[in-house]
Amino acid sequence: MVEGVTRLEWPPMRPMDIDSTFVPYLKELVRERKQSIDLDDVTTRRARMKNKRLSTPLTGTDDVVIGSRTVDVATHSIPIRTYRPRAHKGPLPVILYIHGGGWMYGSPEQSDSIAIEYCARTQAVVVSPEYRLAPEWVFPAAFDDCFAVLRWLYENKAVLDIDAERVALAGESSGGNLAAACALEARCLDQPPIRLQLLNYPALAPDFSSAAYQENEHAPVLSAREMIYFWQSYLPSHSNRPDFRAAPLHAQDLVDVAPAYIVTAEYDPLRDDGIRYADALSNVGIDVTHVHAPHLTHGFMRAWSESGGAGQYAQDNCAAINTVFGR
Description:
Blueprint: E1 5-8, E2 16-19, H1 23-33, H2 42-54, E3 64-72, E4 77-85, E5 92-98, H3 112-122, E6 125-129, H4 141-155, H5 157-160, E7 162-172, H6 174-185, E8 196-200, H7 211-215, H8 224-234, E9 260-267, H9 271-283, E10 288-297, H10 308-324
Parallel strand pairs: 5-6, 5-7, 7-8, 8-9, 9-10
Antiparallel strand pairs: 1-2, 3-4, 4-6
Helix pairs in contact: 3-10, 4-6
């Protein structure tokens, strides 16, 4: 047995060796999820997630100013949530942080703790878009919203007093998908290049035959069945090679895309997505850092304040951002 690791029985999967500092968080999460809700009952699942967020106290807000505004596009307005270091003035670097939730769930408010952590540890402005969700809005709605906000940040840098020379993208799970897609599309902008795409356990292609999907068919936090459902809801009519903005792993041209910092987790059907993307980017000369978390599950970064193991990966996230921002 590895020191600092707890073996958990999880039939019908093989036993899992979990970071001991993460076990209490995981057990509580599993307990909550046993109050099962049918995958098709989107309304009830969203309500439960919102209620959980409202009952969770936030920390670190004394040093961060949280605000909100909208970004207007031709057909609608996109709400954004902003986080700014209280003590710092003048143009600051900016992180476009895109929340996860299978393209169907979540909101900037429900990801406050992560955005606050990024803001406080990097002393950068963090902007989180409330993009349109599936199944009401399928691809490319979520991508269009996120990319519109990225374009707006470049074109309206004075509004948030940001430094357009220092822009990073960050996202987890489906948010990592959207961040990667925005990094690919950003090459068409006549703007300074993205400094970093930070992708935490990203969903990058609907390739359900991978070893990770097979090994984690019944994984806690995110099962293969759930992930397949999310993909089918977001991309209901995908071909064998879908649009790269939906499936960045299928992009034919990766040249000149932003440097990447990719985190994968062992007990996660998305594990191989991140591994394959790191390899693909590296093969065309993109600077890639791939960090693998061998004793953690999908979504572990949300336990950053409760698990020493998860917290270290969150700190490393922020260190990577600080490096590209010249801090």
